[in-house]
Amino acid sequence: MKEIVIISGKGGTGKTTITASLAALWKNTIIADCDVDAADLHLLMQPLTKQTNPFYSGKLPNIDMNLCNECKKCIEVCEFNAIRNDFSVSKIDCEGCGTCAFFCPTGAIRLEDRHCGEWYLSETRFGPMVHARLGIAEANSGKLVTLIRKEAKQLAEKKGLDLILIDGSPGIGCPVISSITGASLVVIVTEPTVSGIHDMERVLGLTSHFQISSSVIINKADLNREMSQQIESVCKNCNIEVLGRIPYDRIVTKAMVEGNPVVEVDNGPVTQEIQSISHQIHNRLYSNQ
Ligand code: SF4
Ligand code: SF4
Question: pTM of the entire structure?
Answer without folding.
Answer: 0.88
